[in-house]
């Protein structure tokens, strides 16, 4: 997949040159100095962020050759994150490691190769990540299996991964501190499959298997160190925790005679309560509570239920900083309730003219969104609104593109002939996300004759969508 040997030769040449011009080329020093550098192909911006626990430590600029380099006078051993926005990955540093990384923004994860002191550990994490990602498409059919066949499949797959881990560990001779992450990258994707199985199996086959699972099916839960702060922001653990909390909450919540919104509220309040009892470490508890809150508020925009959820969240969380951010989202959702005016946004027309949303959205309108990165949705949503326009000529249908390139937007539209649609592009997506709470491309906003909100949270492909236009 990669020409690894060529990259290593080039990387070591660059690394050695930088080391020779910066300090003597000695490892195992008394200090905790470390080096991090590399090259970005097809860069999307002019910097690489270096983070610890989601907090930015340094912003490293790219030079004219799209390379970056940083000497850290003191870097505590542990797991870090590097980000070339919007993409990110992990990098692990032991004492005095010196690492170069190659990445291509067009194929980010698959392109990453580490080179230098510490490369074995980091290339292991990347290889394990890619192996786990490749499983996703294969697993849909596997979730259809009965429990015995499912267990045989995932156990066999896990045994292969464990052998891979053991081989890499023996070769690299890594320490116990890193081994904790190496094992987490091995075990948590396996645990996640087990947490997912009952729900997905029932959705795909109609068969409820929760009562048929072996008594020891979830025994691994007893071995998990939920209060180990090293795992708090580690993706394999975070993903696992999402499904674990969902399963545990579903066991406590009845869906009988409840609307979908009420079910979502009950389920997510149950997740908050489980988190409160499961985690003793305050920092970890707050992080998990925040994850639940962000996910819920951006998924279910029911005005009354959101306030009930926020009340319980605020009772449990002690993280004032994220409480404020989550409250902002809640307030933005409140601003979009029925009868309110849409907050003003800056938009562009096809000719590049800047316009304000207030001057465009004046009457009965259907406002939908699209991106050139999802072409099938782009086409299908336009065809859908043209069909609706024929049946509801009293409505104006407004398409808002969320991308940041004017010429790509106009070029994408030039390949099609979508009639009776007002085409606009948002000037600042972050403003759109903050004011209109747009986090999903399928979201639609319907306005009344006076331009006020009729329904701020609806899906155009909902079978009862047309009811909103009556």
From TrEMBL:
**Sections of the chain in a coiled coil:** none
Q: What is the source species?
A: Flavobacterium macacae
Question: What is the protein's given name?
Answer: Thioredoxin-like fold domain-containing protein
**Origin organism lineage:** Bacteria, Pseudomonadati, Bacteroidota, Flavobacteriia, Flavobacteriales
Q: Which InterPro entries match?
A: Thioredoxin-like_fold (IPR012336), Thioredoxin-like_sf (IPR036249)
Which branch of life, at top level? Bacteria
Domain (Thioredoxin-like fold): give its ranges: 366-453
């Amino acid at each position: 997949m990669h020409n690894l040997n060529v990259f290593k030769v080039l990387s070591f040449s660059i690394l050695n040159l930088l080391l020779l011009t910066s300090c003597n080329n000695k490892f195992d020093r008394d200090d905790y100095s470390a080096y991090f550098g590399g090259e970005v192909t097809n860069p999307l911006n002019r910097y690489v962020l270096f983070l610890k626990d989601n907090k930015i430590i340094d912003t490293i600029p790219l030079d004219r050759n799209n390379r970056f380099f940083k000497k850290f006078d003191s870097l505590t051993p542990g797991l870090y994150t590097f980000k070339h926005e919007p993409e990110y990955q992990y990098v692990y540093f032991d004492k005095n490691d010196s690492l170069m990384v190659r990445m291509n923004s067009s194929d980010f994860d698959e392109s990453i190769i580490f080179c230098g002191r510490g490369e074995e550990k980091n290339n292991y994490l990347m290889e394990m990540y890619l192996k786990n990602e490749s499983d996703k498409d294969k697993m849909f059919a596997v979730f259809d299996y009965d429990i015995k066949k499912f267990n045989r499949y995932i156990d066999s797959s896990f045994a292969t991964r464990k052998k891979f881990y053991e081989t890499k560990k023996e070769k690299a001779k890594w320490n116990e501190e890193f081994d904790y992450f190496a094992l987490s990258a091995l075990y948590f994707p396996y645990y996640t499959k087990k947490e997912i199985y009952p729900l997905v199996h029932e959705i795909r086959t109609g068969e409820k298997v929760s009562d048929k699972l072996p008594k020891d099916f979830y025994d691994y839960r007893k071995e998990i160190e939920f209060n180990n702060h090293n795992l708090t922001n580690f993706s394999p653990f975070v993903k696992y925790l999402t499904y674990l909390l969902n399963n545990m909450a579903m066991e406590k919540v009845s869906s009988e005679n409840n609307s979908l919104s009420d079910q979502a509220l009950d389920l997510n309040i149950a997740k908050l309560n489980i988190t409160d009892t499961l985690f003793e470490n305050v920092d970890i508890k707050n992080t998990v509570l925040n994850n639940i809150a962000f996910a819920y508020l951006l998924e279910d925009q029911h005005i009354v239920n959101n306030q009930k959820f926020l009340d319980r969240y605020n009772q449990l969380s002690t993280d004032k900083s994220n409480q404020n951010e989550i409250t902002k989202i809640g307030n933005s959702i409140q601003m979009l309730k029925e009868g309110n005016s849409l907050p003003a946004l800056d938009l562009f027309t096809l000719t590049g003219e800047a316009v304000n949303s207030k001057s465009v959205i004046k009457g009965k309108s259907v406002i939908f969104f699209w991106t050139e990165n999802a072409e099938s949705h782009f086409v299908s949503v336009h065809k859908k609104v043209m069909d609706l326009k024929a049946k509801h000529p009293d409505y104006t249908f407004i398409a808002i593109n969320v991308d940041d390139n004017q010429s790509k937007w106009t070029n994408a539209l030039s390949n099609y002939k979508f009639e009776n649609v007002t085409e606009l592009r948002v000037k600042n997506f972050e403003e759109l996300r903050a004011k209109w709470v747009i986090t999903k491309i399928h979201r639609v906003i319907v306005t009344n004759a006076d331009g006020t909100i009729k329904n701020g949270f609806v899906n155009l492909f909902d079978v009862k969508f047309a009811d909103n236009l009556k």
